[in-house]
Amino acid sequence: MTQGIINKIFAPSRPCVNSENEISREIVRCAIEVHRTLGGPGLLESVYEEALAWELNHAGLQIQRQVSLPIPYKGQTLSTPLRIDLIVDGKVIVECKATSQYNQIFETQTLTYLRLTGLKLGLVVNFGERMVKNGIHRVVNDL
């Protein structure tokens, strides 16, 4: 039952022609543009997320923001869902961070999202890095 709900949530409204790798290249390009335009680290995570969603949408990709993800537990759905920052073209999860201290738990969290949704690729983008390209971490689920 939960898988049916998850498939409905993440089904794109238009056919996706881009592969996960093509989408991730565009996400990286847009993340660098956001970081450059906003002047580097120092802003709230939500600011970077909104700007990245704008850039990706402007690039022609479908964006879902702050997607609620139900958590299945022993045949039930827990009342407190997880929240995914961005889903791009129904294929790639993006978790935005804005911290000077990167933590591996961000990748573990993203892998959990991938497993629960059945998606294959996630990116953790830490805008708190001086150079955002050093803050991009790829997370894969059977890709």
Tally of alpha and pi helices = 4
Instruction: Give the structural class.
Output: alpha+beta
Shape: globular
The chain-level mean pLDDT equals 90
Largest sheet report: 5 strands, mixed
Give the tally of β-strands.
7
Q: What would you say the CATH architecture is?
A: 3-Layer(aba) Sandwich
Distance between the termini: 25 Å
Helices and strands, in order, run as: HHHEEEEEHEE
Strand-residue proportion? 15-25%
> Biggest sheet: strands side by side, in what order?
1-4-5-6-7
Q: Under CATH, the topology is which?
A: Trna Endonuclease, Chain: A, domain 1
Number of discrete domains: 1
Structural notes for this entry:
This protein has 143 residues and is α+β, with helices and mostly antiparallel strands. The protein has a single domain (2-6, 18-140), classed as Trna Endonuclease, Chain: A, domain 1 (3-Layer(aba) Sandwich). 38% of the residues lie in helices and 24% in strands. It has four helices and seven strands; from the N terminus they run H-H-H-E-E-E-E-E-H-E-E. The strands form two sheets. A five-stranded mixed β-sheet has the order 1-4-5-6-7, with helices on both faces. A two-stranded antiparallel ribbon has the order 2-3. The chain is globular. The model has no long low-confidence stretch (mean pLDDT 90).
